Amino acid sequence: MNHALKFLFALSSVFMTVLLFSEGYWGRGIAMIIPSAILVFMCTRSVRMILVFYYMQVQKLEKARKWLERIKVNQLWKNQRGYYFFIKGSMDVQTNKFSESERLFKEALRLGLKKDVDKAAVYLNLAVLSGNKNDKMTATMHLKKAESLDSKGYLKNDIKQVKKMLNASPKMVRR
Question: pLDDT digit string (tens) for 46-88?
Fold first, then answer.
């Protein structure tokens, strides 16, 4: 469904809810709160992306992959497209499609991610992929970028682990 049409439905639903309350139809107004909230929620986030995040969080990767395949990138909000490619790249890493995942991670960075820690995670994955290709210089560059973006230290242990792998062996293993 077109974003403008979703927004129009949500706006009219919220207007109808407010109108019902102001006219004194409390029962009908209360009944309209949930549909209005769902419509507003659909305008702000892609429900399918939320399901993908949920299934990834609970480690049900096949279900997450299934929902991810149902998403059409051009129907996502512009600021969600980077996250789509980030998730898709992460799933491709798990299935050993390294060149495809590297392309997807770079596309995620190009489209933009909101949080610095998300960007740091992408750079960390790119460092691992570069290390797997024995490109130590590029891996180190990505690792430094990840380190600079991880200001709160969420990925501190992962960054240390990748640094050890880079320094220890000529060929990195997948983390």
Answer: 778 888 888 888 888 889 999 888 888 887 877 788 999 999 9
Dihedral over alpha carbons 103, 106, 172, 121 (to 10 degrees): -130
Identify whether 78 is part of a domain.
no
Total domains present in the chain: 1
Instruction: For tokens 């009219």, name the residue.
Output: 12
Spatial contact of 46 and 78, defined as CB atoms under 8 Å apart: no
Assigned token pair, 15 = 């207007």
User: What value, to the nearest 5°, has the Cα angle with vertex 129 and ends 61 and 82?
Assistant: 60
For residue 39, count other CB atoms closer than 10 A to its CB: 18
Q: Does 162 map to a domain?
A: no
Give the global pTM: 0.72
Domain range for 34 is: 1-44
Structure tokens at 44: 């702000």
Q: 134, 140, 129, 42: which is closest to 92 by C-alpha?
A: 129
pLDDT, one tens digit per residue, over 95-153 is: 888 889 999 999 999 998 988 999 999 999 999 999 888 888 999 999 999 999 988 98
